[in-house]
Amino acid sequence: MNPTHTLPIPPHFNRAKVGQVWRVPYQQLAQDAQTWAKTHRIQPAIADSPKICLLAIDIQNTFCIPDFELFVGGRSGNGAVEDNQRLCEFIYRNLHRITTIIPTMDTHTTGQIFHPIFWVDSNGDNPPPLTQISLQDVENGVWKVNPTVAQSLGDRNSQQIQQYAHHYVKQLEIDGKYPLIIWPYHSLLGGIGHPLVSAVEAAIFFHNLARHAATGFELKGNHPLTENYSALRPEVLLDQAGKAIAQPNSPLIKKLLEFDILIIAGQAKSHCVAWTIDDLLRDIQQRDPKLAQKVYLLEDCTSPVVVPNVVDFTDAADAAFARFSEAGMHLVKSTEAMDNWPGLVGSGSPFSNR
User: Fold this and answer.
1) Pick from 309, 225, 312, 226: which is nearest to 268 by CA?
2) What's phi and psi for 317, nearest 5 deg?
3) What is the pLDDT at residue 46?
4) Facing residues of 1 across strands?
5) Lower Cβ count inside 10 Å, N or C end of the chain?
6) pLDDT of 310 strictly over 90
7) 57 neighbors 276 (Cβ within 8 angstroms)
8) Angle at 204 between CA 280 and CA 307, to 5 degrees
9) Which H or E run contains 325?
């Protein structure tokens, strides 16, 4: 088939179900995908040129289903659902072009530094969700590490963990990152909030079967002593003694930059998406700033964290994306044909000679 054409949306896709949790009918969907590939003459992804990767960041129930723990509503109040409706349609329409889909998955347990149980006040009470713990709070003893949690963390004693907590919030401040936010328990491994959104899982599974292309799942965020907004790098890498507690995901960075085109979408625009792109851009600028031109950000498939009357990260997210654009990355819409995207138009388009 002509690679510049977009495909129709398969009949099984139902926009109305994108904001719901349901069982993906794997066997039936696998048969449908194989039939779809034959009908539309979709070739295996291994022969793709150019090679295109879709990095789908944290498109999980906990962030994307209304009434779940950290639903990303954006200013519209329904942001993540609308984003995922468009993302599913983008995957289906460009099934024959997308070589690989790499979903990242925020993966947590209860006793982590950003969950309530980790901290206590002078009365032994845990901070409520969305509490911001500053360096001053820790230095003044407003919040201390829960000693019983500290004892469960292996080779460090309670005093060392308390010293580390001071170091952690200080390092966030030095690095110009968001302050430590106590999040509701979310994306817990083994829980219903952790899986991919059902409709997105179905689209990725359909791609896998139609293109004979394995899905490249990447788990992140399971270290108890650091947040991991970015899919590429934890917030803090060293403890107070300079000992490594975590490592950047250098293999993933290398893998992403090997593609001819990298498309990025997911949740939340202000946090995990922005931090991932920021880390990617930092690596690109060290290697070759021109590599930024191969990155395309699906602006209509991501939303910022907004909690009405509490916090609104929309402006911060927009400012970050403007900075990414200035560095050479492309801000695009999923609803626009890919061959009309900047840098993919005309005789120089990677699609033009296929």
Assistant:
1) 312
2) -65, -45
3) 95
4) none
5) N
6) no
7) yes
8) 60
9) helix 314-326
What is residue 71's three-state secondary structure?
A: coil
Which residues does residue 332 pair with via DSSP β-bridges, in sequence order? 298
**243 DSSP 8-state letter:** -
CA distance 303 to 317: 8
| pLDDT tier for residue 309 given thresholds of 50, 70 and 90 | confident
pLDDT band at 1 (very low <50, low <70, confident <90, very high): very low
For residues 286-314, one letter each, b for 16 or more C-beta atoms within 10 angstroms of the residue's C-beta and e for the rest, the string is eeeeebbebbbbbbbbbbbbbeeeeebbb
Please state the length of the chain.
354
- Compute the distance between CA of residue 163 and CA of residue 161 in angstroms, rounded to an integer: 5
Peptide bond into 147 cis (omega under 30): no
Strand duo 261-266 + 295-298: pairing: parallel
- What's the token pair of residue 322? 């403007």
* pLDDT band (50, 70, 90) for residue 320: very high
In angstroms, the CA 71 to CA 79 distance is 9
Query: What does the pLDDT read at residue 97?
Result: 96
- CA 29 vs. chain centroid, Å, equals 25
Of 100, 90, 97, the closest CA to residue 299 belongs to 90
pLDDT at 116 over 70: yes
